[in-house]
Amino acid sequence: MFNILTDEEIMEAVFGAVAFALMIWFFRNYLSWTRTKSAGIIFPLTWLMRKGGMNIYKYLKDTRGLSLKSIKTTLF
User: What is the b/e burial string over 12-42, where b = at least 16 CB atoms within 10 angstroms of the residue's CB?
Assistant: First the structure.
């Protein structure tokens, strides 16, 4: 049996997706920036939000026992 995705990878994907959607909405719809203008700032801010979210998740996992199950599979 091996891990396809660990709990931390799943949470990192969730944080990244939510952060990216919020950044797109904020810069394109709220501030009305063009794609070119917003592209340079969206990636670093999404990265920061994803990493910050992961630090919070790891803290909660270590102190409160909050954790998701990893996705596992067996070969054949």
Answer: beebbeebbeebeeebeeeeeeeeeebeeeb
- With a threshold of 0.85, does the pTM exceed it? no
Q: What is the DSSP letter of 30?
A: I
pLDDT digits (tens, 9 = 90+) for 7-39: 888 899 999 999 999 999 998 888 888 888 888
SS3 assignment for 38-75: HHHHHHHHHHHHHHHHHHHHHHHHHHHCCCCCCEEECC
First-to-last CA distance in the chain?
10
